[in-house]
UniProtKB/TrEMBL annotation:
Residues 69-210 form the Thioredoxin-like fold domain. It comes from Cupriavidus cauae. The chain crosses the membrane at residues 25-43. The lineage of its organism: Bacteria, Pseudomonadati, Pseudomonadota, Betaproteobacteria, Burkholderiales. The keyword Transmembrane applies. SUPFAM superfamilies: Thioredoxin-like (SSF52833). Residues 236-264 are annotated as: Disordered. InterPro entries: Thioredoxin-like_fold, Thioredoxin-like_sf. It comes from the Bacteria. The keyword tRNA-binding does not apply. Keywords: Membrane, Transmembrane, Transmembrane helix. This is Thioredoxin domain-containing protein.
Length: 264
């Protein structure tokens, strides 16, 4: 009987053995938590790229020319045929840019049209803007356009003799010394003339959805531009109409009156 008692562990010994094994489980759990924390920290290090769930350049404009301002996926495109020495263009440009910024359904596309009466300065300034775009992209192009309009004396006089565009870089100088900008400006001017466009400012409005277009002569603004959008968006309207600023404004007024009549 005594030998059997010595081979069987007592209840207190079994409890002590289990108590000795139990602390191992918290250590295992702690190890898993520490490993997970280290993995999370490594994932969040500055050198690790953050995951993206959308295309990074889905809304970017293709490299110019043509140079564009506004949403790349805009339904309506307003192509501005303009001369950098044209005083009417100079007055119209900031108004049109502000309108584009306020209407995300539309974007602006620039088209060089230096007029013979304003050359050679009109073409020279166009080459400066073209090289700014080539070197630094769409917004640099439009930034150069804004500066040139603000500082040129207009009517073919060009910039003051003691003033030069401040954005010149080595790349832009190299561009200006090449034949590329002059060829682009000349090609766009020739294309406009072949299309029957020989005055500035002129805006061609295109609806990417209906495929319809409208040519607007002169500085068309505000409600008249919205009415022009309605014209090309309507499936019942004929295509390829050409209207002046006064006609577009008249359409806007008639549209407002029609809306008031319906409301009454």
């Amino acid at each position: 009987m005594s030998s059997k008692r010595t081979t069987l562990p007592s209840r207190s010994q079994a409890i002590r053995k289990r108590a000795g094994r139990m602390p191992r489980l918290p250590w295992v759990v702690a190890g898993i938590l520490v490993a997970g924390l280290l993995g999370w920290l490594l994932y969040r290090t500055p050198g690790a790229p953050a995951p993206h769930t959308w295309p990074e350049v889905a809304q970017a404009h293709p490299a110019g020319p043509p140079w564009r301002h506004g949403p790349a996926d805009a339904r309506f495109t307003l192509t501005l045929y303009a001369d950098l020495e044209c005083p009417f263009c100079k007055a119209y440009y900031p108004t049109l840019m502000a309108w584009i910024d306020a209407h995300p359904e539309a974007s602006l596309r620039w088209h060089h049209l230096p007029l013979a009466m304003h050359d050679p300065e009109a073409s020279r300034l166009a080459r400066v803007a073209e090289c700014a775009g080539e070197a630094q992209g769409h917004e640099a192009f439009f930034g150069a356009i804004a500066w040139l309009y603000q500082n040129t004396r207009g009517d073919g006089q060009g910039l003051p003799t003691d003033q030069a565009w401040p954005g010149l870089t080595t790349a832009i100088r190299a561009c200006l010394e090449s034949d590329r900008p002059a060829a682009i400006v000349r090609a766009q001017a020739d294309e406009a003339l072949r299309s029957g466009i020989n005055a500035t400012p002129t805006v061609r409005l295109d609806d990417d959805l209906t495929g319809k277009s409208l040519l607007l002569h002169g500085p068309v603004e505000g409600d008249a531009l919205l009415s022009a959008l309605d014209l090309v968006a309507s499936p019942d309207r004929p295509d390829a109409r050409s209207v002046g600023a006064a006609d577009a404004a008249g359409t806007a007024v008639r549209g407002r009156r029609h809306g008031l009549a319906e409301a009454q």
